[in-house]
Amino acid sequence: MISYRLGVDDLADMRFACSPLLETATSLWALTEPSAHVLHLPWIRQTSAALRDRPERELLLALVAPEVQWLPDFVTPRPASPLPDVEEELTRVRATPPRRAVADVIRAYGGRPLPPVLEELCATPRRLRDRVCAAMASYWELAMAPHWSRMRALLEADMVHRAQLLARDGAAAVLTGLDPSARWSDGVLRLRVSSYQLDYDADVRGRGFWLVPTLFAKHAISPVDPAEPPTVAYPARGVGTLWESRPARRPGALTDLLGKSRASLLLDLTAPTSTVELARRREVSPSAVSQHLSALHSTGLVTRARSGRVVLYSRSRLGDQLANPWSRDTP
């Protein structure tokens, strides 16, 4: 059980973040245990084939401790901003004190024997840190960068949803919605983060409290290094839609009212989505999509909310009322 004690000021300072390096590291869970991550099978097949003959494969898979599926803490630095760049996060990993990198690897394995590749590298701490960082950077380019715009859109949509929930229903609704095990009472958030026996109690005390949606976690996870800002990574909403290729929905008579492009956009906005992601789905330029979204926004059919540097669009209540009847009646 992990317990975080939060005061009123801590709740007011609660923030959301999206971490590309967290996704890079936790995606290794899907490669080492595909049967537990069936929603990601299209990506698993593609990535496993691409990684098969890569020299960093052995080291990357060794980072996931068997049985408990733990990762060394230093490969997933805590957020320093809501939308960090992967190079910014890799720079922080490169600055990890070498002996701490070794300690994190040993702690992740919980007393179990290290695989040969890690045992050899741990004898030279600086080499371990640098080799792991280089492997993570290479793996990011191979497995994550080609899909990052799609991944980030889903993560940002989740952040916007939770922020709206916070504004509407308050912090307790957000915190208890992070995981089925989450409990909130008397200023304490309690999480049963895994079946592995772990007891950790921390007082946030103005250190900041980050909530980070992630695509590859099956339940809430939380690093327990007391020197780091308190952070909870939780499963993002809508992961089941990440790899699906949806056929274009037929707008039907809605086209007569709005035009084909705008009707199609309105029907597609079932969740907050960025201009870039909508353009990617249609294989058109973001500027073309932006013009249509501006028109839909000016007529009150869509709303927009900023998440860092990105603006996410979603249907308004009026847009829902207009879109849903037509989508049901369309064959």
Molecular structure report:
With 331 residues, the chain is α/β, with parallel strands linked by helices. The protein has 3 domains: 2-16 and 151-238, no CATH class; 20-147, no CATH class; 254-329, Winged helix-like DNA-binding domain superfamily/Winged helix DNA-binding domain (Arc Repressor Mutant, subunit A), CATH 1.10.10.10. The protein is built from 15 helices and 10 strands. The protein has a 4-stranded mixed β-sheet with strand order 3-4-1-5. A hairpin with a 2-residue loop joins β3 (183-185) and β4. α5 (86-94) runs antiparallel to α8 (125-144) and α13 (275-282) packs across α14. The chain is globular and about 70 Å long. The N and C termini lie far apart (50 Å). The model is unreliable at 326-331 (pLDDT under 50).
Record field, number of beta strands = 10
Mean pLDDT reading:
87
Radius of gyration: 22 Å
| Measured distance between first and last alpha carbons | 50 Å
Succession of helices and strands: EHEHHHHHHHHHEEEEEHHEHHEEH
Quickly give the structural class.
alpha/beta
Give the neighbour order of strands across the main sheet.
3-4-1-5
Measured by DSSP, the beta-strand proportion falls in 5-15%
User: What characterizes the major β-sheet?
Assistant: 4 strands, mixed
Helix content: 40-55%
Low-confidence stretches: 326-331
Number of domains: 3
Number of helices: 15
Shape: globular
